[in-house]
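Contributing new records

If you add data, match the layout below exactly. Sequence lines come first and carry their own label; structure lines follow with theirs. Keep one chain per record. Anything else will be rejected by the validation script.
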Amino acid sequence: MLAACRAGPGDDEAEAVPTRPTEAVAQLVDDLRRDDLVAYARHAVPPALHARLQLAWSEGRTIWPLTELPLDEQFPAMITALAAPDAEKQLMASYDRQFAGADRELRATASALGLFATQFIGSEPGYSEAEREHYVQVAAAISGWGQRAPLADRKRAQPALAQLVAAARLTGLAGDGAFAKAGMERGLTRIAPFLKRLKQVLAGYGLDLDAALASVELTLIEQTGDTARVRLQYSLAGQPVDAVLNLERRDGRWYLSDLLGNAETAAGPVAPEATPAPAPDPSPEEAPGADGETAAAAR
């Protein structure tokens, strides 16, 4: 019922349109703080691209903007695994075998994953230079958190897992094709409470993503015509992150360039417009005569 009362794409005209690059970024940050993924998707791309993404989602070709998350390809499978009837029992048994009490091993793994992530980000051709500089800092901050977090504490793990299992089941998005069947707007509406619960679980381990979003500071570096650069600063897991974002203006609204590029890729190529069939040649009966009349009329 609450989701039905939430503003939809048709209500975009009633919203205040950001007129400055920093305001456009701040709007997206606020959407994430409020866990309003439907609004985030609407504000992140122009309406025509949004419509293409809706179609791609319903056809099972993307789950954008969830593709902006780490390990996005495994996200639907994770929801399905968490929502399984015996998920809590099976996953806790797996945790006990691999992680419970393994503090030293988990700290070493977090350190190794941080190095691997940094190398991967540096060599991944799909990232822009701005994204590389940003994500390397994020990877370092999360790796540092992982080396300090009580991930091997079974007393914390059991209630945390129970919360995620319950939240995953409430999405109704388990199973093959569930995301496509739900469609983008309903899918994002359903997954938002799960991501909110995930943020709460991570905060219990010392990784407070809402605090990171609340700490965001934005500064306009330069604006030239329809392009701009904005400095993004925030604190993640106690580590400062300092990045530069590129923006561009389309139809009077500012958008993050990298986010637009990722969304374009997720939506796929624009379908070519149908070319009207050529009109058939007129029959001799209908061919124009020298004086503009048809041959039939002349006859």
